[in-house]
Amino acid sequence: MVRTWAEGWAVSRRTPPPTERPWGLHIEVADNPDEVGRHVLPEADESLVRSAAASVTVPRTWMKMPARPKEIEAWLPQGWLVAWEETGHLMAVDLMATAPTAPEGYTATVETSGAVLRVRVLDEAGEQAATGQMAVLGEAAVADRVVTEEAHRRRGLGHFVMRALADRALDEGAHLGILGATDAGRALYETLGWKKHATLAECVYRP
Prior knowledge:
- The chain has two domains: 2-88 and 200-205, no CATH class; 96-174, Gcn5-related N-acetyltransferase (GNAT) (Aminopeptidase, 3-Layer(aba) Sandwich), CATH 3.40.630.30.
- Strands 1, 2, 3, 4, 5, 6, 7, 8, 9, 10, 11 and 12 form a twelve-stranded mixed β-sheet that branches.
- Helix content is 24%, strand content 38%.
- By secondary structure, the protein is α+β, with helices and mostly antiparallel strands.
- The chain has helices at 2-13, 46-54, 69-73, 157-171, 183-191; strands spanning 19-21, 24-28, 37-40, 61-66, 80-82, 88-94, 107-113, 116-122, 128-137, 140-148, 176-181, 195-205.
- It is elongated, with a radius of gyration of 18 Å.
């Protein structure tokens, strides 16, 4: 599931495909001042974490893995910091069709670009109110960049976006949804039936 999440994230963000490393996957990240690349470890074994961390020489490289942050903190060499505020949640759900309709006062479009599905919700003035996307990888679809603008929150737009993405992903042949959620996002996804499978610890190289 961690590998699928990483591969889907790369497709969604249009980065080069992840490359295999002895400890997991590496993804190059462009046009992001806070991140030049990320190591994704499918398992948080001490030897793998130390090996992955030791391979890094470029600041602003991130490392992500299914573990609690306190478990990995003691394994990190000098220059590495646990990003406590970025700790996430690996979640999944069996996708179901619900034929959602946009809340009153909003219109929605669903676009497809390669393997990426994108839902955009506009308000009556034509301004973007919410958006989200999914990368379809065969039978799995990875949700990403689900955002509701501040002025439009608590109106059901997040629910609508996720359901609309699920419907279209099912049309594309996917059956399993996967995502990495923040604490705030986790609350939304749980109301839609998503289940947490692991804590995602994150750390960054800032010597």
